[in-house]
């Protein structure tokens, strides 16, 4: 027994020492260490002395495509490109941690003005880069107080209510009927009333689980914010909001949780997958989500001719003229604190992403529309719907939620209040939602800026 | 005579009572087992129902769990195993050596180190977690192959303290005899002292094993999270990740992560329980 | 005297020459893993910083902010309440299970094995398992775990009790088994009732185990993080008196989430960590001092 223990200890000691020894040179990574967490690591054919690219990706759904493109780029140029994707809801956390490290990200995402405030000193001025020269519009960029282009909107998306037009017709309705909140409600109420006979209901579950709640605390909440900011001419992050359109928010939310088969009491644990499944399995006609869902819906077996996207109507005057909500939370920033070679390598990679034929096509397919001159037209019917509405002269609902201060935290409070309200829809509980909205905004603003 | 029958009646009742309590105690684990064989939607709808023909998916969750969350389970398991074994081995060997040194050498260094160790035992991890992350990154201690150094450093206080309690009780005569026989300190230590330390090695080892294996925050903060995950990090990542909350597969991952520990527990139960009892009395 | 001199020559001096082997590696790791981060932590609590490289001295303002934060105060009271409840619950239950298992009972070893088992499972995994169970139960009543602070609080208490009772039970069993059979026999001979035996013989004799377990449950409660994070993550987060509070957050999680707000809160989080350290240290030292006094009295 003693011998056994002694031997074990000796073995373990050798192992331990070997482990310590191998750590001294930085680049002797064991083979098992590479390729983790959806990551692509350059092979050994890295040209010496050149920059590296470390792309900290913000959009989990774009991970696969970016990994593929990174691999392709490595193959073509030999420049080491690493793409890492943060889990949803952890981006700012991951970014903070990664930026403090010696191998910091060279390309990262800034979502909005408040993000730019946090990371301004880490963001390279992109004004005169070749990449900026490729932009077809400045609408989606973020500029700091000095007017420098610090973060570049590289794709834009739209969200609204996705409609299964086949089911809608089966229920005896058509898209043309729906032009504002009243008509949307009439159609949805009718479908809900006949759901037993039809075999499907109006709205898919409005789950408030963390995988799904951003659809409402982010996107749906955009409706009252956008109209308020439009009226007040707000273009920068305001310190306070008034909640002038909260009644409209309540109308649409009530519709979501009433005209559905989902139990409003269990929404807080209902997931995005459940909601999506209800829609793809033909159990719901309406599904609030964005253009990015298109590929996933086709994959789940839906036909593109049965799909359409309509604006979110919430009873605001003149909303017959509304288009989709378009904008972006996806702005590239290049880390100004890494070596110049790394910065240049990063700029080259981004330039390649939007100009190379194969890469740009892939980007469009994954991310929707790209505001770059050489990017191809999207094949996504939702984006096409959006473009059609713009051609008809409808107005774009801006992404007002980009101004949200301390966004994850603000949304968490709103979700808590929404869940409580859904379980017990009283006026008192709605007051809590309004408070989470309006007071929460001021609190978060002070927290971040105070 | 009367007394003993009374005892056995009471003992029968107690046995039944405790049997029921034990079964109740295992329900949460049983829950994980049954849900790991159910399709995701059924886990959500009826978490307590046994699998039915409709909801049963066989090993599908386990197969999915292997690569769930875009990260191979076995890689996380490998890192967890590696970090735990190397860290605990380092702590056992080096801290027992240090404890012996501190016990035998009466010097300023010894005293300073001893008091620092005592002090470190009352410092919560939160006090050093942010700064430890920076330091570890600068010194390349952010990989599974180097993080044992961090564990050694942060765990040294308690381990040395526990070893010291035992080493102080060892008779000096044996070591003197070894010295007279011409043994140098190294041979004395490995041939004479270490074998005598065996019971303490086991109890310290068990405590450190349970700590390192289940530790979440330290590796989460220190490791280069974009490359390396341990099992606890993977589980937390699965919970937080976007749109992919497949509860069935997550339960399968949890099962895979607790099976090895439970098997190990079954085999070394006596040592574990003894180690906990001994360690607690010392600590 | 001569003896100790001999041992100095024979044992101490040669070991001293081997200091680089015996003590240096651990000491270096200790400096890296504890001493330096500790000192730097104290320093940074007086700074505004994103990384230590860009730290700027700001004096006590981080501490002022920390004390003004209602979320921190809420976390403190949560932690205190949680500590009190879990210390009592865990120790009482663990003691009685241990007591029962040390009586003549068939299957006592098997039961002990079962009760200890949850300890082997990590806090994050436990949190995940129990959030599924609690949500599954509460669903039947049309509600859910993070609907209010009460569910989250008691959920955490149940989780932690389930996890730690087995551990404390082991310590109590060891304590109970150390009581000599003679002493119990003597009590029986004197005609002591079961209750008298328990309170006058057994409990005084397992006092060291009771102090150990109280101490362990106290520090465990104060340092609780993983379970808190995985079970509720501090949710629900609500607005109270014009400030935002994560209702079920304990101190350790509050420090962590403060750090993650943004870089202007890094210093405040570090200041909270220092306050937390002082709190834990005071608790530990006073508890140890009390124990020592008691032991001296005995």
Would you summarize the structure shown here?
The complex is a heterotrimer of chains A (450), B (283) and C (298). With 450 residues, chain A is α/β, with parallel strands linked by helices.
How is this structure best described in words?
- The complex is a heterotrimer of chains A (450), B (283) and C (298).
- Chain A folds into two domains: 43-156 and 328-367, Periplasmic binding protein-like II (D-Maltodextrin-Binding Protein, domain 2, 3-Layer(aba) Sandwich), CATH 3.40.190; 158-327 and 381-449, Periplasmic binding protein-like II (D-Maltodextrin-Binding Protein, domain 2, 3-Layer(aba) Sandwich), CATH 3.40.190.10.
- In chain A, 45% of the residues lie in helices and 13% in strands.
- Chain A has helices spanning 2-23, 63-77, 91-99, 113-119, 130-133, 165-170, 181-193, 195-198, 214-220, 222-232, 246-258, 272-280, 294-299, 340-355, 357-367, 381-391, 407-423, 427-449; strands spanning 53-57, 81-85, 107-110, 142-143, 149-153, 157-164, 201-203, 284-290, 307-310, 322-327, 331-334, 395-398.
- In chain A, strands 6, 7, 8, 9, 10 and 12 form a six-stranded mixed sheet that branches. In chain A, strands 3-11-5-4 form a four-stranded antiparallel sheet. Chain A has a two-stranded parallel sheet with strand order 1-2.
- In chain A, helix 2 (63-77) links the parallel strand 1 (53-57) and strand 2.
- The longest helix of chain A is centred in the C-terminal third of the chain and has 23 residues, at 427-449.
- With 283 residues, chain B is mainly α.
- Chain B folds into two domains: 2-58, no CATH class; 67-245, MetI-like (MetI-like fold, Orthogonal Bundle), CATH 1.10.3720.
- Chain B is 77% helix and 0% strand.
- Chain B has helices at residues 2-35, 40-45, 60-66, 73-104, 108-120, 125-138, 147-167, 172-180, 185-196, 198-214, 217-222, 231-240, 247-282.
- In chain B, helix 5 (108-120) packs across helix 7 (147-167).
- The longest helix of chain B has 36 residues, at 247-282.
- Residues 1-5 of chain B have low confidence and may be disordered.
- In chain C, 74% of the residues lie in helices and 4% in strands.
- Chain C has two domains: 14-61, no CATH class; 64-297, MetI-like fold (Orthogonal Bundle).
- The two termini of chain C are 32 Å apart.
- In chain C, helix 4 crosses helix 14 and helix 5 packs parallel to helix 8 (149-177).
